[in-house]
Amino acid sequence: MKAGPSSSLGTPCLRRLARLSAYIEREVPSPARESIRRHMAHCADCRVVLRTLKKTIALCRQAPKIDPPQAVSKRVLAVLRRELARCRPPAP
Amino acid sequence: MDDADRSLVERIKAGDVAAFERLFSRHHQRIYRFAARMCRHAQDAEDVLQDTFLAAFRHLKTFRGKARFSTWLYTIAANSCRRTRRGSGAVAPAKESEPDGGAFPVDDWTRRPDALFLRKETRRAIQDAVAELPKDLRLVLVFRDMEGLSAEEVSRIVGASVPAVKSRLHRARLFVRNRLSRRFQESRR
């Protein structure tokens, strides 16, 4: 298949691509895995999809952590404390 | 369940409600992070954080300790996200998330300089793509690829089978991948 910036993949490619996440995570059993590997060896478009999908997964995993601003943690904790106080047993 | 969580839960069930503050301090960051990724709106994320811990406290008696405490909290948070304005959004046409959904960009942007992937615009492009995912796909991608949960844990949280979770995850990844491909193509023009 001709590689280009945008392409409609053929049916055999799409069938294999449906298992690409499983292939990346090594969850495809051996005969099917070999079949995908052989296809990748001669299909430039599918190799690009494989590489870009792996990179997408890596970028998602590296997405920056969003910590709560201190003011948010304090506000929510204050609400929680009011709720806890309502449920606390009365002092003897 | 983690021993520290187990001990805190037992203390709270026995009447030491102040121990709940320890549970809050141990888990509130991950719940906020999840909510911020799901809702992409600071006020919604704060609402989800508050709703999740209030609901967890009120329903702690129903927590049996079979799953990790964090998994139980994530389940409550996921339900809370569904009630927010943005958390419930499903703006992406489902067709685009399908592997057979028409044109597949095959530009190999992985060969671009590493600096591109560290840029704010790239991080923004990922956030945009995730936000455009239909809710059921977004939940699975955020839990699995961003929060690092196992497929089994995600399956318990979203109430779907493990194969269904994996199928949704694949569709979500392809959707994000296609969006990134288009963004990188545009940036090169």
Key traits:
heterodimer; A: 92 residues; elongated; B: 189 residues; mainly alpha; Rna Polymerase Sigma Factor, Chain: A; 9 helices; 68% helix
What do these coordinates show?
The complex is a heterodimer of chains A (92) and B (189). In chain A, 66% of the residues lie in helices and 2% in strands. Chain A has 92 residues and is mainly α. Chain A has one domain (11-87). In chain A, helix 3 (30-42) packs across helix 4 (44-61). The longest helix of chain A is centred in the middle third of the chain and has 18 residues, at 44-61. Chain A is elongated and about 65 Å long. The model of chain A has no long low-confidence stretch (mean pLDDT 85). By secondary structure, chain B is mainly alpha-helical. Chain B has 2 domains: 3-83, Rna Polymerase Sigma Factor, Chain: A (Orthogonal Bundle); 94-188, Arc Repressor Mutant, subunit A. In chain B, 68% of the residues lie in helices and 1% in strands. Chain B contains 9 helices and 1 strand. The longest helix of chain B is centred in the C-terminal third of the chain and has 27 residues, at 162-188. Chain B is elongated and about 65 Å long. Residues 89-97 of chain B have low confidence and may be disordered. At the A-B interface, strand 1, helix 2, helix 4 and helix 5 of A face helix 2, helix 3, strand 1, helix 6 and helix 7 of B.
From the alpha-carbon coordinates, what is the Rg of chain A to the nearest angstrom?
Answer: 25 Å
The average pLDDT value of chain B, as a whole number, equals 87
User: Radius of gyration of chain B, rounded?
Assistant: 19 Å
Shape of chain A: elongated
CATH superfamily of the largest domain in chain B: Winged helix-like DNA-binding domain superfamily/Winged helix DNA-binding domain
Which topology of the largest domain in chain B does CATH recognise?
Answer: Arc Repressor Mutant, subunit A
Helical amount of chain A: 55-70%
- Give a count of the beta strands of chain A, DSSP E runs of length 2 or more: 1
What's the total helix number of chain B?
A: 9
